[in-house]
Each structure stands twice: as C-alpha cells, then as structure tokens.
Specification:
The chain has five helices and nine strands; from the N terminus they run H-E-E-H-E-E-H-E-E-E-E-H-E-H. By secondary structure, it is of the alpha/beta class. The protein has one domain (43-198): 3-Layer(aba) Sandwich (Rossmann fold). A hairpin with a 4-residue loop joins strand 6 and strand 7 (130-140). Helix 3 crosses helix 4 (164-183). The longest helix has 20 residues, at 164-183. The termini are far apart.
Amino acid sequence: MRLILASVACLALLGACSNGEKTARYLIDPPAGGARVPDRLGTAELKDVSLPEYASGDELSWQSADGAVRSNTKQLWADNPQRAFTLALARSISDLSGATVIAEPWPLSEPPRRTLEVRVEKALAQADGLYRLTGRYFVGDSAAGGINQARSFDISVPLADTGPAAIARAQSQAIARLAGQIATLSGPGRSVRTSAAPQPRIDDIFSQPLPPLEGS
C-alpha cells in the first residue's frame, strides 16, 4: 500500500511539474511607429547581437534590492533572446528608416554595403525601477572613402512594475530606442573614414576570367 501511495504521489508531482500553463513566456516585440528618419545605412548586415550571459539565457532576469541578478524558471522568453533581439532590432531599424537591414546570414545575392555590430554591456531591469540598455554599436563600410561609426548607447526605460510582463515591455521599448539611435547614427563616439579599398580576396582573384593568349 505504501508503495502504491508513493507512486501516486510521484505521478502527481510529475504532472504538476510538466504543466505548461504554469510557465509564462514573453515576447521581445518593439512597438511600431515613430517619426520616420532618412536612410543613412542603405543595405546593412546586422551581426548577431552580443548579450551579457544573464540576458542571453531563457529566463527573464532582474536585479533585486540586494544588487543580485535573479531569475525564475517559470518566467521565460518565448524565443532565444539573442535571436529575438537581433531580428527585432533589424526590423525596427528598417521600418524606421527604410534601410534594408537584415540579420546575418545575408540572404540576398547582392552583398550589403555596410555591416552593423551591436555589443550590449548591460540589459537589465534594475532595482532602481529602470530598465537599462547600454553598450556600443559599430557600422563598417569597407569601400574606399566609406564612413565607419563607433558609438555608444545608454538607454533607460521606466518600469511600470517589477513583474515579468513589465520587464518584457521595457526591453522592447529600449530596443526601439536603440533602433532610432542606430538609424540616425547618433550617440557618443566618432566616425572613421576608410582610407583605401579592401584588398581582393584570393577566391575573388581566381574567379576573374583569364586574359586572352597572345596571338589568339
């Protein structure tokens, strides 16, 4: 009898653990809209956004009053955070400016004019009631005379409350603001002009047609 009761208790516990309704999943979904800005990027490939380890996991993270970064196994992102952040940022920049910004790998036969890299240093719902998104972004233009950008961003969005839904909304709003900053190439930093055209690659050299033989 004890064995039967123990088995029933184990099954009940497993059933409770596997109940998907007790796990909440949240989307990264920047709000649409906002004033349109001129296209300053043209075509650009966005590299996978680099996120801190605590922000790249499946669980939503926040900072408690003691300064620790905590998470809950029942409060998850609906998609891989790096993938969702990268795709959402590319879409937001494109929608805002009309530029063709696509997350890597580049799917078009015509290569992009520029590359875009974003390195996030902090992406956290802080104990002071603000969601903070900081880091640097880089725009590369390898053409001779092209303008390269190395700029930083520091974005703060007030949190409506400390719940996971509020954290997800604040992160989405922060991504939208970052998209606006990148689209306008703004923020502290500097511009660097490419001094010379890049050297041709070996495969580019051997892909060129051979010159005709003398006398032919």
